[in-house]
Amino acid sequence: MSAVQSVSGKSPSATPETHDVVVVGAGFAGMYMLHRLRGLKMTARVFEQGDGVGGTWYWNRYPGARCDVESMQYSYSFSDELQQEWDWSERYAPQAEILKYANHVADRFDLRPDIQFNTRVDRCVFDEDTNRWSVTTSDGATVVAAFVVLATGCLSNARMPDIEGISGFKGKVYHTGNWPHEPVDFTGLRVGMIGTGSSAIQSVPVIAEQAKHLTVFQRTANFSIPARNAPLTAEEREIFRKNYPEVRRFAREEARNGIYTELPDRGALDDGDNDRRAKYEARWRHGGLTFMSVYNNLALDKTANDTAADFVREKIAEIVKDPDTVKLLQPNSHPIGTKRICIDTDYFVTFNRPNVTLVDIKSNPIEEVLPHAVRAGGKDVEIDALVLATGFDAMTGSVAKIDIRGRNGQTLNQKWAEGPKTYLGLMSAGFPNLFIVTGPGSPSVLSNMIVSIEQHVDWIADCAAYMRAHGFEAMEATKEAEDDWVAHVNEVAHTTLYPQANSWYMGANIPGKPRIFMPYIGGVGPYRQICNDVAAKGYEGFAMTGAEEARKVAAS
Ligand SMILES: Cc1cc2nc3c(=O)[nH]c(=O)nc-3n(C[C@H](O)[C@H](O)[C@H](O)COP(=O)(O)OP(=O)(O)OC[C@H]3O[C@@H](n4cnc5c(N)ncnc54)[C@H](O)[C@@H]3O)c2cc1C
Q1: Ligand 1 atom at shortest distance from the alpha carbon of 29
Q2: Does residue 56 line the site of ligand 1, with CB under 6 A?
Q3: Residue 270 per-residue DSSP state
Q4: Is 176 in the pocket of ligand 1 (CB under 6 A)?
Q5: How far is the CA of 454 from the centre of ligand 1 (A)?
Q6: What percent of the chain has pLDDT over 90?
Q7: Ligand 1, atom 22: nearest CA belongs to which residue?
Q8: Which atom of ligand 1 is the closest one to the Cα of 198?
């Protein structure tokens, strides 16, 4: 039940509600945005299509779902009281605990009164005469706002695979990114899972324990590092809490990926075989994403990258008993780290279980789903339930679902038909007063996302305050600044190995989606500095207009 009474039922001709800001989405980005706007005494309405806060952690309730950035770092830093008082139970908190945290934040900062749940934003239209957005929602209501902030999430649009026959399957079909709220019991069932990305890697070991049989349909093998998850002791929590000022500062300013960790000072080829192996072994034993920061050139130099990839491939061969399964599970199609690296608990060892089978759908593609089976390579695998771990239409999927119309009635989808174009990932030319949180062209999914979310939200809030203080009514990215930024994002990406992978960073998982490397790979520290410098120079690269100028432009 929404805390804000739905405005549905209002006659369309009634004067629309007016707010300073409409925020779309009540995940970590939308919640913090609301908090900051409140601090500025701006009126805001948040629309969220789900019936609760938490975004990712509201939707992704699949077995084994948890964060892969350590919880003491994958948490808000904006309130010291909050980070001092919240007790994370494990090194990587499970989904339910992260959702509880999101709800705690909503209550602690009294956010719910300004959030309207169960309401999707369908349409946003910019009125060039008034410099206002008209926002139409799924309940038929329209509200008017000076600013719209898209806090719609980078991984919030679950991707349904285009496989013939799925709708005729007689058992239950689940998508990891839109999991039921009630517990799902696979006891005694033969389960099929399509996909082997991060969500599959987390859920396979858990589902295998329960199901009678689990068949995993794999198109691309992925690199995964053990999480080494464990309960957090009070002492470990205390170390973080005492050091939070430095931990957070480092994550924001110095780390490339927003994670507090040692920065490597040498490349993989600077060490001899034995030393290198010992370092990889130590990181493998430590577990987690920092495996990729053993050396400073793993994302840049293929020969260096091969040493890390070979190490993980050897580990897979040590863990998995069946030689054919080993070959299938060893990733060979991309350099390590160029697809989102996965963090697991017992993923590879699960394939030693007698009730787990791996089917290679690269060489034997799925032909169709039958009422009681999946047919791949001419063979039918009988199943009672189907789990789709097929990921998301990442970064642009949720934005593309909204009919957004900027200057001259141009839609954002038209503008982004050849790939997303933004300045700093924050705004797109021709769409004034429309901000995106962790949009394409910003570090976003290559980082600890809460670090990136807080940076974007702070920048947007400061910018809105600046505009109000100076009497500006409209702001938008200039085309020149946007073109330069898009070129820079591409140039930096192509100095790395990342574009070599057919990854969702490139839009490669969505048929027909333009192949553009979407996130900014320059690192969260340098990126923050660029954004700060832009603001310090009076929002360089953005055009700002006041009421009078806007009237002149409209009249000419
Ligand atoms: C399984 C999983 C694990 C992850 N683990 C990590 C991790 O360990 N570390 C990390 O840094 N990141 C992780 N991420 C990325 C994660 O998405 C971000 O960390 C973060 O939660 C994003 O917050 P957000 O508010 O930007 O977006 P979201 O949490 O996706 O929230 C966006 C919200 O907007 C709503 N919405 C979208 N469109 C509309 C619309 N038109 N109208 C109304 N509402 C709308 C959605 O319903 C959603 O609730 C993970 C992602 C997944 C899927």
Answers
A1: 25
A2: yes
A3: G
A4: no
A5: 14
A6: 90
A7: 153
A8: 1
Ligand 1 site, residue 156, Cβ cutoff 6 A: yes
The CA distance from 427 to 425, in Å, is 6
* Tally of residues, the chain: 556
pLDDT exceeds cutoff 50 at 254: yes
CA distance to 72, 83, 491, per residue, from 238 (Å): 10, 11, 42
**Residue to substitute in 438, 449, 451, 460 for testing ligand 1 pocket (most ligand atoms within 8 angstroms of CB):** 449
Q: What is the pLDDT of residues 226-249, one digit of tens each?
A: 999 999 999 999 999 999 999 999
**Tokens (6 digits) for 451:** 């670090």
Pocket residue to mutate for ligand 1, from 152, 175, 257, most atoms within 8 A of Cβ: 152
Question: What is the Cα–Cα distance from 411 to 267, expressed in whole angstroms?
Answer: 46
Q: What integer is the mean pLDDT of 81-104?
A: 98
Distance 27 CA to ligand 1 centre (A): 6
Q: What is the pLDDT of residues 166-211, one digit of tens each?
A: 999 999 999 999 999 999 999 999 999 999 999 999 999 999 999 9
Mean pLDDT value of segment 330-337: 96
Which residue's C-alpha comes closest to atom 37 of ligand 1?
152
- Residue 56 alpha carbon, nearest atom of ligand 1: 29
Residue in this structure with the two tokens 């339930």, named with its chain if needed: 385
CB 49 near ligand 1, within 6 Å: yes
Return left, alpha or beta for 134; rule: phi > 0 is left, psi -120 to 50 is alpha, else beta. Answer: beta
Using CA atoms, how far residue 274 sits from 76, 310, 335, in Å, is: 40, 14, 22
The per-residue pLDDT for range 338-387, each reduced to its tens digit, is 998 999 999 999 999 999 999 999 999 999 999 999 999 999 999 999 99
Strands 434-436 and 132-137: unpaired
How far is the centre of ligand 1, averaged over its atoms, from the C-alpha of 199 (Å)? Answer: 14
Ligand 1: atom nearest CA of 199 is: 1
Does residue 261 carry a pLDDT above 80? Answer: yes
Residue 123's pLDDT band, with cuts at 50, 70 and 90, is: very high
| pTM given for the model | 0.95
Helix segments in 211-351, DSSP class H: 234-253, 273-286, 302-319, 323-329, 347-350
